[in-house]
Amino acid sequence: MILNRAGLPPAGDQPVVECRDPAGLSAITRPGTALALWRRQPPSALIEWLAAQDAQQLPHSRLLVRPADTRRAVTSVMEQSGLPAGPMRDWLIGDIEALTRAFAAITANETVDIRLEAVSHDSCWKFHRDYVPVRLLTTYRGPATEWVAPAHAEAALQAQKDYDGPIERLEAGDVAIFKGKMAADADGIVHRSPPIAGTGQTRLLLCLNSPSDVSPEPWTSSSSE
Question: Which Pfam family is one of those matched by this entry (predicted)?
Fold first, then answer.
């Protein structure tokens, strides 16, 4: 794929756009673009470190934060979960902060709804479109989000577990911004969480949304006290 200097493919009506850096995720703002995908390889040491952690110590929280407060808020969450301090935890916190800042800039929001989830069951296993304008997803541990190309969307929605058509899969560390049902200029990408019930696996998922009526109260430094 030919990329321009901003790390984006040439402009055009492309429902799925791949980019090479976080700035390229802004392609999601283009009319007709339903998925902006940044395929990346996180440090192998991080993947190994997270895989070795007790699932009970993986962070699980929801926060509404200003980008400038992200590092302090997420650090507090990880302290409370018991995830061991060190270089790998610092990398994870820094990555969440960077993605939160990027998402806030793309969506022009002053705050971001952060969900950091440890998932060991079949959460959101059905093919669906999110009821949001846009949503950022990345998986740090375990199998990542599955999605289908727009041409196969209706077949996947109708067949669900019986769907036997092509399925695209993100890898751990990949960053994707999906448009949802509330987007004005695209139908939204049909996707699902990978079924993992009974496998003994626990995923660590980061989900970023614009603030909404169901967001928690804004985080403050006293929230962690």
Answer: DUF1826
Give the model confidence (pLDDT) of 193-225 as tens digits: 888 877 889 999 999 999 999 999 999 987 765
Distance CA 100, CA 219 (A): 14
In sequence order, what are the beta bridge partners of 128? 191
Structure tokens at 189: 């990408």
Q: Exposure of 223 by Cβ count < 10 A (0-12 exposed, 13-18 middle, 19+ buried)?
A: middle
What is the pTM for the complete model shown? Answer: 0.91
Residue range 16-52+110-212 forms a domain whose CATH class is mainly beta
Sequence-ordered list of residues with C-beta below 8 angstroms from that of 201, at least 6 positions apart, any chain: 120, 142, 143
> What end-to-end distance do the CA atoms of the chain give, in Å?
49
- What six digits make up the tokens of 223? 């929230």
* CA 212/CA 27 separation, integer angstroms: 23
Pairing between β-strand 112-119 and β-strand 61-65 as defined by DSSP bridges: antiparallel
